[in-house]
Amino acid sequence: MTQSPQSIWTDVERIRTQAPLIHNITNFVVMNNTANALLAIGASPAMVHAPEEVEEFVSISSALVVNIGTLDSTFVAGMKLAMRQAKSLGKPIVFDPVGVGATTYRNRVSEELLALAPPDIIRGNASEIMALAGLNAQTKGVDSLYGSDAALDAARRLSSVLGCVVVISGAIDYIVQGEQLAAVANGHPLMTKVTGMGCTATALTGAFAAINTNYVQAATHAMAVMGIAGELAAEKNQAPGSLQVNFLDALYTLTESEIEERLKLS
Ligand SMILES: Nc1ncnc2c1ncn2[C@@H]1O[C@H](COP(=O)(O)OP(=O)(O)OP(=O)(O)O)[C@@H](O)[C@H]1O
Ligand SMILES: Cc1ncsc1CCO
Ligand SMILES: [Mg+2]
């Protein structure tokens, strides 16, 4: 295991000093939350989806985050151009298959995107990872109907077919690459009462992938920071409105000792 409180802290400091530009093609629900989370951790977010400009924008960015939460055909055209460009320039791609399994359109678009430009990291909840791996998983729109451990076999399969890191989020976040497995047990159940906390995890993963090309490490670091900031926020006040605000503050003020004291990584 190469991930530790020190390796997490090194990456947080890299993000804070380098402020990598993160190109997000994401959904209308979370554009604001995820941009604020990226700023709070120290990255520089931009939400850019027009097909006319995404290729140019990818070329000045340090990572591309693609999230299919509120799909339409123009978004899909932008995603395809951006992902192809990121692949050809060797920039990290992080993919969030929000709600895949719910509709034929989401399934088809996800398949097309994965075939066109396999991402470096995929982050979804258990239902999404199972659906993406071709299993007939049940999904309740964008929320999972399974615990994250139910998707471990699916994640291994997806990881080996695509050659990428797969993250299953939930009470325990699993980070899978081939036979390698890391588990982060940080977080708080109240996080499921704020929309787009998963999308935020994906966006933060983009920031860590921008400064660390060991994508297993980058994904593990992102999920650890996500969970620890969620715990710190939930301890301040146990209600969703303030959790959203306190989560951003916890990211911004995060210290090495908070990581050392709280990290639950195995
Ligand atoms: N039951 C739980 N206990 C503790 N932490 C949790 C729990 N569920 C989720 N989390 C935390 O919330 C984060 C987001 O995970 P979740 O699986 O809820 O995403 P998601 O379903 O994709 O969300 P969304 O689609 O709303 O963005 C996890 O990485 C974890 O830190
Ligand atoms: C609620 C919702 N609907 C489409 S995307 C999204 C954000 C959480 O995934
Ligand atoms: Mg999600």
Automatic annotation (TrEMBL):
Molecular function in Gene Ontology: ATP binding; hydroxyethylthiazole kinase activity; magnesium ion binding
Pathway named in the protein's UniProt entry: Cofactor biosynthesis; thiamine diphosphate biosynthesis; 4-methyl-5-(2-phosphoethyl)-thiazole from 5-(2-hydroxyethyl)-4-methylthiazole: step 1/1
Keyword field contains Cell division: no
Gene3D superfamilies hit by this protein: 3.40.1190.20
Positions of ATP binding: R123, S169
A biological process term (GO) from this entry: thiamine diphosphate biosynthetic process
Named cofactor requirement(s): Mg(2+)
Keywords from the UniProt entry: ATP-binding, Kinase, Magnesium, Metal-binding, Nucleotide-binding, Thiamine biosynthesis, Transferase
Keyword Metal-binding: yes
Segments traversing the membrane: none
InterPro entries in alphabetical order: Hyethyz_kinase, Ribokinase-like
Residues binding substrate, per UniProt: M47, G196
Domain of life: Bacteria
HAMAP family, A to Z: Thz_kinase (MF_00228)
Similarity field: Belongs to the Thz kinase family.
NCBIfam families: PRK09355.1, thiM
Role according to the record: Catalyzes the phosphorylation of the hydroxyl group of 4-methyl-5-beta-hydroxyethylthiazole (THZ).
Protein name: Hydroxyethylthiazole kinase
Source organism per UniProt: Spirosoma foliorum
